[in-house]
């Protein structure tokens, strides 16, 4: 049975610029063929079992040939798969969407096109530049500076009315400026270059045709070039910026953790890149609960699996009356509270050592520890020293999520929520830039991070998502 191909415009810059229709289509696809210029945060919306295939399509970088991409779409669709062809910007604005569709039509493969927000309008707009303006520019022209035959005669665009927007032209900016002047435009014509539009790294420079190439020298791609009277306008957002506006953060871990921390950071204006590379997998069965005087949870994931276990075994939570519940910190306590269980024991400091002391001081009898397989054994060691009877049960494992590709984190900060998260991140080839500071939740996580990176390491206090957000804000002072 032949599958279906969605040609989806991912928008430009940040992931939240994709359309609702595009996002909904992406979620139901089992193969995703994506360009390098998309925000890879979008990939987390694909199903866990989805096949993720990068094909590049970035200037001056290795990319799959267009013919090979066309053949790949046909191959996957004929195998009965639902395919998302995730393209930067809009599929039909220099996106070669038409070429891909022509190949699908040749093989009788059904397809659907979902428009995307194009950088030709959105990037200038986000920099405060309108591409049209009453009495100044009643038209705009979108021009590619990169042509298949490499024939570039920019003087022919000098006599157009309105605003000229050049895409893929950063390396040819001197030629563009010289050609437009040669064609009759005044050297004093306003011009602007916006680099990495729609992201926290967005930067715009303004000038004229006479000096814009010099002013924009060294700016990184991708970039949009605007030429015309509207390039002199600055309608940048004037709303009060958040405390972390302009700060970029990569958040790693499970989807739950990345979403929680990303929400905190984005509420303060940060540009967040989610890298949800971990998944929680059940490991050891929970023993019969009778005979335990205290159940100790060292994470929210342990709580989730415990509640799931109780449902599967038809265990009435009222049977826990008289059993003390211990939680390592406020996040774990909140997860317990969501399930209708209010913990009896929460240490003042959210560390395993303080949890052990608090449990021992309450003289609980026999303790059931529910923790991660790769989690700290410190609680068991400390309870042993305090002569507390316990069973140490490793109920889940934190594993690498399949299908994740190696990436380079070029953000101001990267956050790790667990020691295993650090290990899984670096051992698949992920790297971080020299400017990136590493924020770790817990001293064990920080110690493990030192094995993999020489970057500055900040240990969050308290050891929660809120603590990580606070650590970043504190470092920005």
Q: What integer value in Å does the Rg equal? A: 27 Å
Percent helix, as a range, is 25-40%
Largest sheet features: 5 strands, parallel
N-to-C CA distance: 59 Å
Which residue ranges are poorly predicted, with pLDDT under 50 across at least 5 consecutive positions?
none
CATH class term of the largest domain: Alpha Beta
Strand order of the largest sheet: 3-2-4-1-5
CATH superfamily of the largest domain: Tetrapyrrole methylase, N-terminal domain
User: What is the CATH third-level topology name of the largest domain?
Assistant: Cobalt-precorrin-4 Transmethylase, domain 1
The count of domains is 4
How many alpha or pi helices?
14
Please state the average pLDDT score: 90
Number of strands: 22
Overall body shape: elongated
In terms of DSSP E residues, the strand content is 15-25%
Corresponding CATH architecture of the largest domain: 3-Layer(aba) Sandwich
Please state the structural category: alpha/beta
In short:
The chain is of the alpha/beta class. Helices cover 28% and strands 23% of the residues. The chain folds into four domains: 4-116, Tetrapyrrole methylase, N-terminal domain (Cobalt-precorrin-4 Transmethylase, domain 1), CATH 3.40.1010.10; 121-232, 2-Layer Sandwich (Methyltransferase, Cobalt-precorrin-4 Transmethylase, Domain 2); 248-277 and 401-475, Rossmann fold (3-Layer(aba) Sandwich); 287-399, Rossmann fold (3-Layer(aba) Sandwich), CATH 3.40.50.
């Amino acid at each position: 049975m032949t599958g279906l191909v969605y040609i989806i415009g991912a928008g430009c810059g940040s992931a939240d610029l994709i359309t609702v229709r595009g996002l909904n289509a992406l979620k139901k696809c089992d193969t995703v063929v994506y360009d390098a210029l998309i925000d890879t945060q979008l990939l987390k919306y694909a199903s866990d079992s989805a096949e993720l295939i990068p094909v590049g399509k970035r200037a001056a970088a290795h990319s799959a040939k267009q013919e090979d991409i066309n053949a790949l779409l046909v191959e996957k669709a004929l195998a009965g798969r639902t395919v998302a062809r995730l393209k930067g910007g809009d599929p039909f604005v220099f996106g070669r969407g038409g070429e891909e569709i022509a190949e699908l039509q040749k093989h009788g493969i059904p397809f659907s096109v979902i428009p995307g927000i194009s950088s030709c309008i959105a990037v200038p707009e986000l920099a405060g530049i309108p591409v049209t303006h009453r009495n100044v520019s009643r038209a705009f022209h979108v021009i590619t500076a990169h042509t298949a035959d490499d024939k570039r005669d920019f003087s022919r665009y000098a006599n157009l009315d309105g605003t000229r927007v050049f895409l893929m032209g950063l390396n040819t900016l001197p030629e563009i400026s010289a050609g437009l002047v040669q064609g009759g435009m005044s050297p004093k014509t306003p011009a602007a270059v916006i680099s990495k539009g729609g992201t926290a790294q967005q930067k715009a420079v303004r000038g004229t045709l006479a000096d814009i190439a010099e002013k924009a020298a060294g700016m990184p791609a991708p970039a949009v070039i605007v030429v015309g009277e509207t390039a002199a306008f600055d309608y940048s957002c004037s709303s009060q910026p958040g405390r972390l506006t302009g700060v970029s953060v990569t958040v790693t871990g499970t989807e739950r953790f990345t979403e929680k921390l990303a929400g905190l950071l984005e509420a303060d204006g940060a540009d967040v890149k989610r890298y949800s590379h971990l998944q929680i997998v059940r490991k050891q069965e929970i023993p019969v609960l009778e005979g335990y005087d205290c159940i100790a949870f060292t994470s929210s994931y342990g709580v989730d699996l415990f509640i799931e276990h109780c449902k599967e075994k038809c265990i009435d939570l009222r049977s826990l009356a008289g059993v003390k519940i211990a939680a390592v910190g406020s996040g774990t306590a909140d997860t317990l509270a969501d399930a209708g269980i209010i913990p009896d024991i929460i240490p003042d400091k959210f560390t395993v050592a303080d949890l052990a002391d608090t449990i021992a001081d309450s003289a609980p009898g026999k303790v059931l520890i529910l923790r991660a397989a790769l989690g700290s054994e410190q609680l068991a060691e400390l309870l042993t020293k305090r002569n507390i009877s316990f069973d140490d049960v490793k109920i889940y494992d934190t594993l690498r999520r399949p299908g994740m590709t190696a990436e380079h984190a070029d953000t101001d900060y990267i956050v790790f929520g667990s020691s295993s998260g650090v290990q899984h991140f670096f051992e698949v080839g992920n790297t971080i830039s020299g400017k990136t500071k590493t924020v770790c939740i817990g001293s064990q996580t920080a110690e493990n991070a030192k094995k993999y990176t020489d970057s500055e390491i900040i240990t969050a206090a308290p050891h929660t998502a809120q603590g990580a957000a606070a650590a970043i804000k504190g470092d920005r002072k």
